[in-house]
Amino acid sequence: MPRSTKPVPASAQPAGESRLPPEALRRAYEQSLEPIMITDRDNRIVSVNPAFCRLSGYTPADLVGHNPRMLASGRASPEFYAGMWQALNDKDFWEGEIWDQRQDGISYPRWLKIAVVRNPDGSVANYVANFSDINASKEVADRLAYLAYHDPLTNLPNRLAFESQLAQSLRICARENEQLALMLIDLDNFKNINDTLGHPVGDKLLQNVAVRLGEAVRSSDLVARLGGDEFVVVLADIDSPLSAARVASKIQQQLADSYRIDDQALYATPSIGISLYPVDGTDPSTLLSNADRAMYHAKGAGRNNYQFYSPRMNEAAGERLRMENELRRAIASIAPASCEFSIHFQPQIETASGRTVGLEALLRWHNPTFGQVPPSRFIAIAEETGLIQPLGDWVVWETCRLISLMKEEHGIANIRVAINISAQQLRHENLLQMVRGALACYELSPYDIELEVTESTAMHSPETTLSILDQLSAMGIKLAIDDFGTGYSSLAYLKHMPIQRLKLDRSFVLDIESDANDAAICSATIALGHSLGLELVAEGVETPAQRDFLADLGCDVLQGYLYSKPMPYEDTVAYLQARR
Question: Fewer Cβ neighbours under 10 Å: the N or C end of the chain?
C-alpha cells in the first residue's frame, strides 16, 4: 500500500474516533502480555517492555543501544534476513517465524511481526516488533504428527508408520542383498479377556504386551501395533531364517508368562506367523499377507507357537527347537552314570621327532533321539542360547578329571591337554576361579593344560581379552589362538597377548599342495608366528604330502587324521601307551 508523506490532520480523523492520551499508551505498552521491542531508524534498540524482558532474560540496560542481532540464535540464513528487510522497505510490514536466543543460551521460536513507523516526511522513525508465543501451537503440531504415526494406547508405531518403515527396510535389503523376517503376532484368548473383564483391563494387557515385545528384540528391530490384539515385528538383516526362529521362540517365552493386572493373573499366549524376504515376497503387502497365512496356521496347530510361511522352514525350525530342548535336558541332567556327553582326544605330534607332545580335548554328544550329533550343530545352538557356559565349564572339569586318571592309573605324564574356551566363558567373571578350582580338585599343575580361544573371540574385545589372558598366563597356563587366519587379527594386539601358540586353521591345510594361495598363507603365518616367538600348530593334516610340506615350512606341531581321529578316553590311553 502507498505510504503517506504527510501527517493526517485531526480534522480528518473518522467521526467518533479519538486519540488515546500518551499515558494510556505507555501503560498499555508496559502492561502488555506480548513482548514488544522498538528500534530506531538505524535498528538500534531504544525500548523493550517488561514482557520482552521476561521472555529474553535480558534487562533493558542489557539491550538498549544494541542491534537486535544480539538475540539471534544463528538458525536463520542471510537470505532470510534479506527477504525480511526487502518486505519492510516495500510494504512497511513483515511477519514470520523466527528463532531467538535467551540470555541463558536457550533458543526459542516466536512469531514476529515488524511494523515501520515513519516520520511526516516519509523517512523511517522506528521499527516496532511484536512477538507472539508459538511454542504451544508447535507442541500441538508435534503431538498431532506423533499421533499420526503412533498407536495412542501402546505408543508403538501404527500401521501407517509400519508400512513406511517396512518399505524402507526392504529397499535397504534389496540394495545390500540382505534377508528380512516379518512376524505377525496375534494374542490367544485376548477376546475372552476383553469381553469378560472389560476393555480397561484389555488395554492394560496390550500395554504390557508392547513392553515385553520391545524387550524381546533388538533396538534396531521394528515393533508395531496394527490394531486390536495384532502386533508385528520386523527383523532386518538376519543371518538366516533360523535367526527368526530364535527370536520367535524368545517372544513366545516372554509373552507366555502371566500378567498381573488389577490383582489378577492373566495369560495371553501368542500365535506367530513368519514370512521371509525375499523367498516369501518382495513387497510389504505380500509379506504381510503370507505372514497372516502362517499365523492362522499357528492358530490351527494349537496356538502358542510360531509357523513359517514355508513348510520347509517349519521343519528346520521344529528340528532345531527339539534339539535345543534335548540339549537343555542333557545339560541339566549331567551325571557320571547317565551323561550323554563325553570327551574325545586328538593327538598333537611334534614335527621334528614324531613324538606325541599333546592332546586336544573335544566335546561329543550322543543323544537318544538324534544319535551322535556333530559338534558343528549342537555347539552353535549352545552358543546362541547361552548353554555354552555350563557346558564349557563341564568340559574343563571333566578334562581335568581324565588327565588325573591318566597320571594316576596309567602313569601317563608330560602330555599337555588343550581345552577350547568359548567367548561367553572368556567374558564370565568366574573363569579364573573355575579353572583354579578344577586344577586344585584333581591336583594338577597349570602346565598340564592349555587353553585355546578362537581368533574371532580374541579380537572381539581385545582390551578385555588381554586382561583375562594375562591373568591366566600368570597362573602358568599355556595359551593358544585357534583357527588362526579365519578372522581379522590386529597384529598390534596380537603381539601384546600372552600367547605361546598359533593354530593354523584346517581350511588352509586342506589344499596346501594344490592351492598357491593356501600355501602362501601357511608359509606367511608360520614365518609370522616364529618372528613373534610363537609355536605353530597345523590342524587337519590328513596326508603324508601335507605333513612333508608343513615340515619344510618349519611348522612345529601337526594334528589331524594322518595320525589319529579324535578318540574316546580308553582308546587315547592305549594310543599313548603304545607310543611311549
Answer: N
Radius of gyration of the chain (CA): 38
d(CA 67, CA 333): 81
Q: How far apart are alpha carbons 184 and 230 in whole angstroms?
A: 7
- The DSSP output letter for 521 is H
3-state secondary structure 181-205: EEEEEEECCHHHHHHHHCHHHHHHH
pLDDT in tens, 295-352: 988 887 788 899 998 877 667 777 888 888 999 999 988 877 679 999 999 999 999 9
CA 349 – CA 557 distance, rounded (Å): 5
Encode pLDDT of 517-572 as tens digits: 888 888 988 998 898 889 999 999 999 999 999 999 999 999 999 999 999 999 99
pLDDT one-digit tens code per residue, 418-458: 999 988 888 888 899 999 999 999 999 999 999 999 877 77
Helix (H, G, I), strand (E, B) or coil at 346: strand
177 three-class SS: coil
C-beta of residue 575 within 8 angstroms of C-beta of residue 567: yes
Q: What percent of the chain has pLDDT over 70?
A: 92
> What are the pLDDT digits (tens) for 134-182?
765 566 666 667 778 888 899 999 999 999 999 999 999 999 999 999 9
Q: Hey, which residues does 45 pair with through a beta bridge? A: 39
pLDDT at 286: 92
At residue 112, does pLDDT exceed 70?
Answer: yes
Joined together, the cell numbers standing for residue 9 give 490532520
Q: CA nearest 543: which of 515, 577, 509, 517? A: 509
CA dihedral 392, 393, 395, 401 (to 10 degrees): 170
Residue written as grid cell 511484536: 130
The phi and psi torsions of 443 (rounded to 5 degrees) equal: 55, 50
What string of DSSP letters covers 70-121? GGB-S-S-HHHHHHHHHHHHHHSEEEEEEEEE-TTS-EEEEEEEEEEEE-TT
Query: Cα dist. 310→115, 296, 577 in Å?
Result: 70, 13, 54
**Rounded distance between C-alpha atoms, residue 55 and residue 132, angstroms:** 10
Alpha-carbon separation of residue 447 from 413, 439, 479 (angstroms):
11, 10, 11
Q: Which residue has the cell 528380512?
A: 180
Which domains are delineated in the chain? 20-138 (3.30.450.20), 150-309 (3.30.70.270), 334-578 (3.20.20.450)
